[in-house]
Amino acid sequence: MRSHRNEFPAQVKIERYNYAKGRCEICGKLIVSVAHYDHFPIPAALGGPGTFNNCRCLCRLCHERVTREHDVPAIAKSKRIAETRMGLRAPKRKMPKHKDPWGRGREQ
Ligand SMILES: [Zn+2]
User: Fold this and answer.
1) What spacing in Å lies between the alpha carbon of 92 and ligand 1's midpoint?
2) What is the whole-number distance in angstroms between the Cα of residue 4 and the centre of ligand 1?
3) CA atoms of 44 and 17, how far apart (whole Å)
4) Which candidate, 22, 10, 17, 24, places its Cα nearest to that of 65?
5) Tens of pLDDT along 32-74?
6) How is domain 10-85 classified at the CATH fold level?
7) How confident is residue 81, by pLDDT bands cut at 50, 70 and 90?
8) Are the CB atoms for 3 and 19 separated by under 8 Å?
9) In the chain, domain spans
10) pLDDT tens by residue, 89-108
């Protein structure tokens, strides 16, 4: 079981579930099994509070997808910004173009 940082209190879940009318706030489908509550727009890992305004009521599939596509890059980005601020890395630079030293195509 994952740690429950800034977990949503039951009251917030109830309010959000009712606000969403029992539907996923991303795909709009009626949540048939268990509602998932996502920290949005501020991920829990970045200190997002467990409040109604930082909550989304989602189906399991959408929750899994946003965790992959939103939270992970957002956390990585904030880490980069913090590291840049601390002078640990040079500010944004272009990634060098990947060149295969042997001139082969990418193997699929
Ligand atoms: Zn959904």
Assistant:
1) 35
2) 22
3) 19
4) 24
5) 989 999 999 998 888 999 999 999 999 999 999 988 887 788 8
6) His-Me finger endonuclease fold (3.40.1800)
7) very high
8) no
9) 10-85
10) 876 667 777 777 776 655 55
